[in-house]
Write a structure and sequence with these properties.
Elements lengths: L1 H29 L9 E8 L5 E7 L2 E8 L2 E9 L2
Antiparallel strand pairs: 1-2, 2-3, 3-4
Length: 82
């Protein structure tokens, strides 16, 4: 009988932990993710080829279009977001 109570306690603890993780995971996903002033954010990118990509980068009130390639990266276009 004592083993049954121990098993029930372990299952109850694991169930509570699982429920907490699920609840906190959903809550974290529902919060808006805003970049702090002066921080770096990359809201999107697209693959052009296997080794070439275009990235949109936001940094200190500017939005940049950056192309990355095997030889490095190039700022294609930049504009103020404000």
């Amino acid at each position: 009988m004592e083993v049954a109570w121990q098993m029930l306690a372990v299952l109850g603890t694991l169930g509570a932990l699982f429920a907490a993780v699920r609840l906190l995971g959903r809550r974290a996903l529902s919060l808006p993710r805003r970049a702090a002033p002066g921080s770096l954010a990359a809201p999107g990118s697209i693959a052009l080829t296997a080794q070439h990509r275009l990235h949109i980068v936001e940094f200190e009130g500017r939005r940049l279009l950056v192309a990355t390639h095997p030889a490095g990266c190039t700022v294609v276009h930049g504009e103020d977001v404000r």
